[in-house]
Amino acid sequence: MKTALIQITHSDNKQANIAKLEARIEATAHEGAQLVVLSELHNNLYFCQTENTAYFDLAEAIPGPSTDFFGTLAKRFGIVLVLSLFEKRATGLYHNTAVVIEKDGSIAGKYRKMHIPDDPAYYEKFYFTPGDLGFSPIKTSIGMLGIMVCWDQWYPEAARLMTLAGAEILIYPTAIGWESTDSEEEKSRQLEAWQTIQRAHAIANGIPVVAVNRIGYEADPSGATNGITFWGNSFAVGPQGEWIARATSGQETTLLVDIDVKRSETVRQIWPFLRDRRIDDYKNITKRYID
User: Fold this and answer.
1) 131-171 pLDDT, tens per residue?
2) SS3 assignment, position 268
3) How many Cα atoms occupy the beta-carbon half-sphere of 221 within 13 Å?
4) Of the residues 87, 102, 150, 168, which is catalytic?
5) Cα(282)–Cα(110) distance, rounded to whole angstroms?
6) Which position among 113, 124, 179, 218 bears the catalytic label?
7) Mean pLDDT of 95-115
8) Is 184 a catalytic residue?
9) Quick one: pLDDT at residue 181?
10) Residue 40 a catalytic site member
11) Choosing a second label site near 215 at 20 to 30 A (CA), which of 17, 48, 155, 282?
């Protein structure tokens, strides 16, 4: 599966962001990409740094303008495309939603972000209702895609449930970065932890993992923090957590990688983690805490 990971900076000009993505998508399609993955909330700046009701105007219906536009691109280039949109489901009801566009331009399926953070500079609970579609992979012409979004990538339960439902690859559109007051040592620890947890999902489930992050500095409009420098480092790993490709934190990048989803079968034969799970004794996993 030839897969493109598009890592770019974003501005407050939505049309400029979309035009940049269009150019990158076209270029990767001409290079043979079958699957193209964009970062979290790619149409705009990461608006969740502050709580402001004006930003609800950025939300749109699904289907809607973005799925129509990117659907046209997917059909023109014959690619499967993973989007990340601010979904307006109804008046006063919004989600952080990933959408998979099939190569004929139709919507193959969507995933609503399940884990919603609420931390300084990441005030997502103000904007997004937790997802209600569960951890269900999306069937496409190129395979079963296990799509989740950003904060979901820290939860091994989510990766496992996607795998158990038949996902052949885990894909995480992402917007994560550093706050400027963090020390260089702390920044390094955070980045390494982010990479390690997702590589662990690949290993524990015997499945490839793709994460696509944004890069660049985005100011906090409220001035409450010093803004976020998104750390990029988009990457793809194989079913043993081995690096296939990774970007840096310093520049816009499009990674075009070959992912062998069929190798999962070989890996699971030598590391049969799914076989040896003690499902008869995991009932406490559904509890918040075991007192």
Assistant:
1) 999 999 999 999 999 999 999 999 999 999 999 999 999 99
2) helix
3) 13
4) 150
5) 29
6) 113
7) 98
8) no
9) 85
10) yes
11) 155
